[in-house]
Design brief:
Number of domains: 1
CATH class: Mainly Alpha
Pfam family, one: BPD_transp_1
Membrane topology: Multi-pass membrane protein
CATH architecture: Orthogonal Bundle
Number of helices: 11
CATH superfamily: MetI-like
CATH topology: MetI-like fold
Strand content: under 5%
Largest sheet: none
Family: Belongs to the binding-protein-dependent transport system permease family. CysTW subfamily.
Protein name: Phosphate transport system permease protein PstA
Keywords: Cell membrane, Membrane, Transmembrane, Transmembrane helix, Transport
Order of helices and strands: HHHHHHHHHHH
Length: about 290
């Protein structure tokens, strides 16, 4: 067998394997959307869930998911940016930084249920936050922080060293060069990674079962005072998210239309994650074009 024929066979095998994987994912996506989209309506997206009778929605769970995501990103984004800047621009290559990077790699590969149990012991029990949005947001921060830090560091390292030299040659300090030259150049990759991480966190369930809880109390949307117990913005209330709601319905749901609610909620979750991915690409491309002037 000559080299050209071997190359064609290997290429064909790779195309077939890639096609099979894409086909499996496409069929799975089509199955979820085909079964769930017919159950989605404005009432379904805004109405509170029912415990014993049919006709309920996912309004509270959907709001809880976005609120938890907002709080976790609000906490983890500045920390990850400063940590990524330090590791990329200031950390010297020694044993300590190697340990830090190894720890980040290990933490980024932890199962979410382990992060959930850690959050339960540290935030819910030891810190006294109980099953609450705050406990869930802090657990999601632990879950998401290593991934965001690595994303920021990689984005900063992808900037050519000549950019740094140009900033320093203009009389800028090292810190000013990082802030005004390196960080804007790496911004498209950082934003894309942030949005993709947000989509990953949005569908998280295991880490929130033990921290945010499995109940969704009725909310008073006329009172947005975060210190009011029934306020949607109260960070100390328990908050069942959309992913946890899907798990709960399929494991112990007794409502007559449990199958329909589960299918509709799964479709909403899939659509939300797809929108996060599309948004990441659109914003990343737009910021890149603006930064490069293309």
């Amino acid at each position: 067998m000559n080299a050209k024929r071997a190359d064609k066979i290997a290429t064909a095998v790779l195309y077939v394997m890639s096609g099979i994987i894409v086909l499996i994912l496409a069929l799975l996506l089509f199955y979820i959307l085909f079964n769930g989209v017919p159950h989605i309506s404005w009432h379904f997206l805004t109405a509170p869930a029912e415990s014993f009778q049919k006709g309920g929605g996912i309004g509270v769970q959907l709001f809880n998911s976005f609120y938890l995501l907002f709080l976790s990103m609000l906490i983890s984004t500045p920390i990850s940016i400063w940590a990524g800047i330090y590791l990329s621009e200031y950390a010297k290559p020694n044993r300590l930084t190697n340990i830090v990077r190894t720890s980040i790699e290990v933490l980024s590969s932890l199962p979410s249920v382990v992060v959930g149990l850690f959050g339960f012991l540290v935030f819910a029990v030891q810190a006294g936050f109980g099953f609450s949005i705050l406990s869930g947001a802090l657990a999601l921060t632990v879950f998401n922080l290593p991934l965001l830090t690595r994303n920021v560091e990689d984005s900063l390292r992808s900037v050519a060293f000549t950019q740094r030299e140009a900033g320093l040659s203009l009389g800028l300090s090292r810190w000013e060069t990082v802030i005004h030259v390196v960080l804007p150049e790496a911004l498209p990759g950082i934003i894309t990674g942030m949005i993709l991480s947000a989509g990953r966190v949005f569908g998280e369930a295991a880490a929130l079962i033990y921290t945010a809880g499995q109940s969704a109390p009725a909310l008073d949307f006329t009172n947005w005072n975060p210190f009011y117990i029934a306020s949607p913005l109260n960070p100390m209330r328990p908050a069942e998210t959309l992913a946890v709601h899907i798990w709960k319905i399929n494991s112990e749901g007794i409502i007559p239309d449990a199958t329909a609610v589960s299918a509709g909620a799964s479709a909403v979750l899939i659509i939300a994650v797809l929108l996060f991915n599309i948004l990441a690409r659109l914003i990343g491309n737009k910021v890149y074009k603006r930064s490069t002037g293309l």
